[in-house]
């Protein structure tokens, strides 16, 4: 039937939607207040998987019932990053006001790429603050991006174009080379591939026993590359490798970069922010030498996903890689089309959300000093965990704690387990810790050994959470080891 009523997505009944919105806030606050009573993780049930297979809705349903679906089928099966015993991967914890800021930003729905509007200024203020936090000069540049993967790609592209400014127009005709240690995050390899250098152009340099880049091996490789006529232009240094938190020797790498005229990029996804912690302030002053540094706000600044950051020493070089102004983006003298230069001239993306608001509000609410204390607290807690582990004869540290990561494993006392058995046993412990909702560590493999890995970027963890964790690892380990032993006996018979 023809109707001349025009459609809108705005609520027909704003009173009831408003009531629902208040309910959502209350529910999320309750959820975040009762985390200790909840499992860290629970398996996604069939009902949720079925919901996720429902076909495209043709007709709408009341907002209340959509929300009810979320509450019943989605919320309880979250990843668990908000929980006090979540220490997997490099997961950040999120925080209350930043959660609300995301709602406000979505409500404003500003596109933070060009034009004269408040979000443009706040976004840039957060970049100014980021430079100050990491000791980068005011003249430097930067960009908020989705995460450290995007930050690494942005950096590699700028480093590449700074090396040869014809590449933007001509593409790559040379055998370019980037150096990074074998412990470097896979996003750096992706960045090198996407930048057209190719995975083979990324030389993965061996590490020493502490998982830091081996400088001699690096120098050897540089000599080989130069002899072969390849063109090295960049070293990627780790400040906090994802597996163990190792930090490459920054001063030595900086000296090599200076001598060879290479770009020094730091992947400091979580580790760079340790510069704020009293214990690392001096050691990590070296970050200031870098040409670019990538880090995540959604890791060690506890900002909800997703937001990362790339900083550049030289803003002009950043601009040279991306600036392009089509007629439909020309700036005007006045009106909405005036204001700061378009941010699309400084990065890959055009449309960008107001990610800056959650950082801006968090920093205003807590102040940078509180973040310094929290980062230090996380480091201290992992050192405490190390002492707990060292007190237990069934547990062994596989590498000393650097930064905020502990890698350890359970080893049965009652029988000699092979490496294969130890690997299976520890993997089983991790899976059961998750399944029983007790704790969410992750894992990695160090020199062929499967290890239980705790990466602490959690502002909700307390010492007692680590005590519970160690107790549960031993309890599960003893039970699983017993069943392994019986199997061994059975095989021997
Ligand atoms: C997490 C991480 C990345 C990737 O960052 P995303 O925000 O997940 O894209 C890169 N490097 C290191 C060392 C990381 O820990």
Keywords:
493 residues, alpha/beta, five-stranded mixed β-sheet, 16 helices, binds pyridoxal-5'-phosphate
What is the element layout, followed by pairings?
Layout: H1 14-33, H2 46-51, H3 63-74, E1 86-87, H4 96-108, H5 118-134, E2 141-145, H6 148-163, H7 167-170, E3 176-181, H8 186-194, E4 202-205, H9 215-227, E5 231-238, H10 250-260, E6 263-267, E7 292-296, H11 297-300, E8 308-312, H12 315-322, H13 356-366, H14 368-390, E9 395-402, E10 405-410, H15 419-435, E11 440-446, E12 449-455, H16 463-492
Parallel strand pairs: 1-11, 3-4, 3-5, 5-6, 6-7
Antiparallel strand pairs: 2-8, 7-8, 9-10, 10-12, 11-12
Helix pairs in contact: 4-13, 5-13, 6-8, 6-12, 14-16, 15-16
The chain binds pyridoxal-5'-phosphate.
Could you walk me through the main structural features you see in this protein, from its secondary elements to its overall organization?
With 493 residues, the chain is an alpha/beta fold. The protein has helices at 14-33, 46-51, 63-74, 96-108, 118-134, 148-163, 167-170, 186-194, 215-227, 250-260, 297-300, 315-322, 356-366, 368-390, 419-435, 463-492; strands at residues 86-87, 141-145, 176-181, 202-205, 231-238, 263-267, 292-296, 308-312, 395-402, 405-410, 440-446, 449-455. A 7-stranded mixed beta sheet has the order 2-8-7-6-5-3-4, sandwiched between helices. α8 links the parallel β3 (176-181) and β4. α5 (118-134) crosses α13 and α15 crosses α16. The model has no long low-confidence stretch (mean pLDDT 96). The site of pyridoxal-5'-phosphate has 13 residues, from α6. Pyridoxal-5'-phosphate binds at residues 90, 147-149, 185, 187, 240, 242, 267, 269-270, 296, 308.
């Amino acid at each position: 039937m023809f109707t001349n009523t025009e459609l809108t997505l705005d609520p027909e009944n704003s009173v009831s939607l408003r009531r629902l919105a208040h309910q959502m806030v209350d529910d999320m606050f309750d959820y975040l207040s009762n985390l200790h009573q909840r499992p860290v993780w629970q398996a996604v049930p069939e009902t949720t998987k079925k919901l996720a297979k429902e076909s495209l809705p043709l007709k709408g349903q009341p907002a209340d019932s959509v929300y009810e679906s979320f509450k019943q089928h989605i919320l309880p099966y979250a990843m668990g990053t908000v929980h006090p015993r979540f220490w997997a991967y490099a997961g950040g914890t999120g925080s209350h006001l930043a959660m609300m800021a995301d709602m406000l930003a979505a409500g404003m729905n500003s596109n933070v790429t060009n034009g004269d509007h408040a979000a443009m200024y706040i976004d840039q203020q957060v970049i100014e603050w980021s430079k100050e936090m990491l000791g980068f000069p005011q003249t430097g540049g930067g960009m908020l991006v989705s995460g450290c993967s995007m930050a690494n790609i942005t950096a590699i592209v700028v480093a590449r174009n700074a090396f040869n400014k014809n590449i933007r127009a001509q593409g790559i005709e040379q055998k370019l080379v980037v150096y990074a240690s074998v412990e470097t995050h896979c996003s750096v390899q992706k960045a090198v591939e996407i930048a057209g250098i190719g995975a083979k152009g990324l030389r993965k340099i061996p590490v020493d026993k502490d998982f830091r880049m081996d400088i001699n091996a690096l120098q050897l490789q540089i000599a080989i590359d130069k002899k072969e006529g390849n063109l090295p232009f960049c070293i990627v240094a780790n400040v906090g490798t994802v597996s163990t938190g190792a930090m490459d020797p920054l001063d030595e790498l900086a000296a090599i970069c200076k001598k060879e005229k290479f770009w020094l990029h730091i992947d400091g996804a979580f580790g760079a922010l340790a510069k704020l912690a009293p214990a690392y302030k001096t050691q990590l002053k070296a970050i200031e030498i870098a040409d670019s540094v990538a880090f995540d706000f959604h890791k060690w600044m506890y900002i909800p996903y997703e937001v990362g950051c790339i900083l550049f020493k030289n803003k002009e070089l950043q601009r040279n890689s991306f600036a392009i102004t089509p007629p439909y983006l020309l700036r005007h003298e006045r009106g909405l089309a005036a204001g700061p230069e378009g941010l699309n001239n400084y990065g890959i993306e055009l449309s960008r959300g107001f990610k800056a608001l959650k950082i801006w509000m968090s920093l205003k609410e807590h102040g940078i000093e509180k973040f310094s204390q929290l980062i230090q607290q996380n480091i201290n807690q992992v050192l405490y965990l190390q002492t707990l582990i060292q007190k237990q004869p069934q547990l062994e540290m596989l590498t000393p704690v650097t930064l905020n990561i502990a890698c350890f494993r359970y080893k049965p006392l009652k029988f000699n387990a092979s490496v294969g058995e130890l690997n299976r046993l520890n993997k089983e412990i991790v899976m059961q810790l998750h399944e029983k909702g007790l704790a969410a560590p992750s894992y990695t493999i160090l020199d062929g050994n499967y290890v239980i890995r705790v990466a602490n970027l959690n502002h909700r963890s307390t010492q007692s959470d680590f005590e519970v964790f160690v107790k549960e690892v031993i309890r599960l380990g003893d039970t699983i080891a017993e069943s392994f032993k019986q199997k061994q006996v059975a095989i021997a018979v």
